[in-house]
What we know:
Blueprint lengths: L2 H27 L8 H4 L11 H12 L3 H9 L4 H28 L6 H8 L2 H30 L2 E3 L5 E4 L1 H27 L3 H21 L6 H17 L6 H26 L12 E2 L2 E2 H8 L7 H9 L11 H24 L5 H4 L5 H14 L5 H34 L12 H6 L2 H18 L8 H22 L8 H29 L3 H29 L10
Antiparallel strand pairs: 1-2, 3-4
Amino acid sequence: MNGILMMVIAIAVLGGAYLIYGRYLAKKWGIDENAKTPAYELEDGVDYVPADTNVVFGHQFASIAGAGPINGPIQAAIFGWVPVLLWILVGGVFFGAVQDFASMYASVKNKGRTIGYIIEEYIGKLGKKLFLAFCWLFCILVIAAFADVVAGTFNGFQLDEAGAVVDKIAANGSVATTSVLFIVEAVILGCILKYAKLPKWLNTAIAILMLVGAVALGLAFPMYLSRGVWHLIIFAYVLIACVVPVWALLQPRDYLNSYLLIFMIVAAVVGIFIANPSCNLNAFNGFVVDGQYLFPILFVTIACGAVSGFHSLVSSGTASKQIKNEKNMLPVSFGAMLMESMLAVIALIAVASFAQGEAAAQGLTTQPQIFAGAIANFLTAAGLPYSLVFTLINLAVSAFALTSLDSVARIGRLSFQEFFVDEDTDEKNMSPVLKFVTNKYFATIITLVLAYLLAKVGYAEIWPLFGSANQLLSVLALVACAVFLKKTNRQGIMLWIPMFFMMAVTFSALGLTIFKLSKAFLATGLSLGNTLQLIFAILLLVLGVIVAIQGIHKLTEKNTAEAKPL
């Protein structure tokens, strides 16, 4: 097996899946091109804002991608390239793309509401409350982690053990400058998209010129600030990004970043076809490697490249409120997921191109560094300088951590607001207390304050549970969508296998965590971090079981009345 053959297989499978399976789902569920979408029906200029397909695709793709499809496959490569490739392709098509499309479809058919609302409407209020509480806590954890990661990426100074500045980090300074310029350019582009009404090709040309300009200025004028300062700046930025209209910042910035990520993918594919790297990984290393079980660890580690619960939050939380026409849902959701699976395959080829110990010998220690180093190696065959390519790929990966950050922060804010509002709540005659807690500014501030505190005191204590928590979201989204399809007389059987399989994965992973931590507690006691992990693992397992039981009950009961498709 070599890089080109892996790439050809991936292109054939993922391209064929979109043309055949994606269109099949759209036809089976029903797409009404004449229906008035929530973006128009509930247009408020803040969250509900209709946008062109390429703009919403940019938001969806940039939000769900980030470093996830790079980190996961590289970490999971310990099991061999065959199980990793199979799970990316099978999971990406039949699990992830189906989940993302179903989540967006159900949301658009229900006034752009989140999966939490779908659970309330078709499963019950208890399930909705549990789901939204979990979503909010999950978002706080992700915000804390991503903010810290971004601050570390932007950190302009290398410190010694005593905390004294040793040297400046030019690459980080360039990434910081470019990212700040992206934000400024996004506001300008947002005004152009909203008010100038230019042709799409001209908007695209302007976006690409802005992108190139920001990268060039970033490389020429690196910005050097400390990690602590960047923490404050990032949270201040996210506070603004959460409450301003999506057209003013979220849409155009994700639009800009999507071109950067697509450029990275295209450059990587070209590099693979030029260099044709060999595969230095074993095909299969066994079901147990270094104490890690292939099931369920492989399916928890590779999330964003195959199926990720976080995607359902983006699909139903922000992107569904921007869809102009129902026909746009397939390319925005299904298509973006398959593009992400392509990125995951590239990450697998990248790590496979290194012989054992070779990446570490070159100073490539983190997953993004391994990815960037491999792509730089591939493109040197085309005559491009290694250092330039390495910096640009790192820049692309870093930019998307910030993109995911403000998307998940907005989702956290919406989850908090929706927790206090039921389907029968009269939003025009709410009590003063209810108006206060559902205010977007209060919801944003309390979410970000808790995330900031968690980032400072140590989110790493519970971060090991992120993979299981993320995949539990996938279970709950699949359950909710399956019930929605059943209750509206649409075929949802294609969600059943992914739903039950991910239940087995998530509950097994949480069960193993609880078993290991309980065993350690009985033997020697637990540290504060392990105690928090044990508590959160138990809570997650109980939450998942309750909502899953409720959902399965709804799936197996007979409809009491003839439902009309929305």
